[in-house]
């Protein structure tokens, strides 16, 4: 069984997803006041749901902290289009 975990690496300004402890991808961001701008997302292994798990966790974390998201990254923007229940994080 594979273990997937997501965490905020604030020192590097990115959320990271790990598969069995190995880095599987990241979503880079810029934090400016109460706005988190996601600028770039990379996933090393496709087809395992890592990208979706990464972005979902990141958006839920940002929402929980009361911050607003600017989805500059096309992957994050696409995720929000497919999951309108999280769209309120953009403030639109």
Automatic annotation (TrEMBL):
PANTHER family from the UniProt entry: BSR4717 PROTEIN (PTHR31435:SF10), PROTEIN NATD1 (PTHR31435)
What superkingdom heads the lineage? Bacteria
Any stretches that span the bilayer, and where are they?
none
Q: Can you name the source organism?
A: Saccharothrix longispora
Enumerate the spans annotated as N-acetyltransferase domain.
Answer: 7-91
CDD domains named among the record's database cross-references: NAT_SF
Q: State the name under which the record lists this protein.
A: GNAT family acetyltransferase
């Amino acid at each position: 069984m594979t273990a997937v975990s997501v965490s905020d690496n604030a020192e590097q300004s990115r959320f990271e997803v790990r598969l069995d402890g190995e880095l599987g991808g990241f979503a880079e961001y810029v934090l400016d006041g109460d706005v988190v701008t996601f600028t770039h997302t990379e996933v090393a292994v496709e087809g395992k749901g890592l990208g979706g798990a990464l972005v979902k966790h990141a958006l839920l974390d940002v929402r929980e902290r009361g911050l607003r998201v600017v989805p500059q990254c096309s992957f994050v923007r696409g995720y929000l289009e497919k999951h309108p229940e999280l769209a309120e994080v953009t403030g639109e």
